[in-house]
Amino acid sequence: MAIFGQSVALLVAHFALGLKFPFVACLVCIGASAVLNAALRARFPVAHRLDETWATSILAFDIAQLAALLALTGGLGNPFSILFLAPVTIAAASLPPRRTAGLLAFMLVCATAIELGHAPLRSSGGAAFEPPPLYAFGALIAIAVGAIFVAIYASRVAREARKLSSALTATELILAREQHLSQLDGLAAAAAHELGTPLATVALVVHELAAQPQIAALCADDLRLAEEQVGRCRSILGKLSSPETIAESSLNETTVGELLEEIAAPHRLLDIEIEVLREGPQPEPSCRRNAGMMHALNNLVENAVSFAKSRVSLKASWSGEVVRIVIADDGPGFPPQVLAQLGEPYISKRGLTRRRDGAAGGLGLGLFIANALLERSGARLDIANGSQSAPGAVASLVWMRATFEHGRLTRRQALEG
Known about the structure:
The chain is 59% helix and 11% strand. By secondary structure, the chain is an alpha+beta fold. The chain has a five-stranded mixed beta sheet with strand order 4-6-7-9-8. Strand 6 (311-318) and strand 7 (322-329) form a beta hairpin. It is elongated.
């Protein structure tokens, strides 16, 4: 793309605009980029990811090649000098700070050098386009300041993105482990439940045969029954060996009220009263045990308990169309400046751990992840402060009932998304 753009600009300037400059020398500079591009394509496969040294070297070549073209076409007075920012921006977003700083310094040296000595652009009549020295000096300062600002800003954005990606990856691993443990628990419970009756029957038959050896030859029915039960045991073991079968069983489902009771249970050991309310027509909506949704709900309840004075309310209400969960506490609520930024990562400061002190106290990344996990389950999360008569923070979650009961995404789709 760069080679094509430089070639078009060169041809238009020379043939359409009639500008005079070392045309052949400029073609050699562009040709050097083309040769390097072809050599890299021959040296490395398309899917190969270059290491830091190779990437730094190639970006340094891009800076040097652009500097050579600008030196032949008017220096920093050439409007295309702004392209100096491109390699620096790429380096800041993808390379370590030390290498970015090196490329930035190299770019500033090149920009200064071409401003001190360059070939002027000339019109078809031979008149030179040479900006005043003050303008040229201003262009140099502008490029330097712009490059430094872009490098710092791009590196910060890239660093925050990497942090967020790492945090989300760690969360997915934790949830995958929780899901695996949950499946193991369900497997053990299912095995104990399903195998109890047939194994007891087999034991009874064996006991009867052992107690009455004289009629063992006459117990054909009992032996046949024993064989049937053994076959049933084998069938159950085969079913339990498939995780998909367990995932589809009723052991992996819970009602919305039981879900809230399960989330609230670990927090009842504290000195905060936790009230679970249910309201709606029968039957009560149920959902599959989703590790992501449970982690997010636990995060919201834990936050409410942390900031509550004495009471937290978990209320589930439903209709034929929607399911709603409201988590409310009687704490100080959120300061306005924090409330406006909730859901964004890293809005809080370490050491400020209470909302009444005017800080989110660790809500930034945790609430961001919780919101992302709830969105995957199909929920919409709204957070606000209560009224003057009932102060505190209120988190409201709303699902379409069909989405809540059947799930919008499978776990594999959620992980891939």
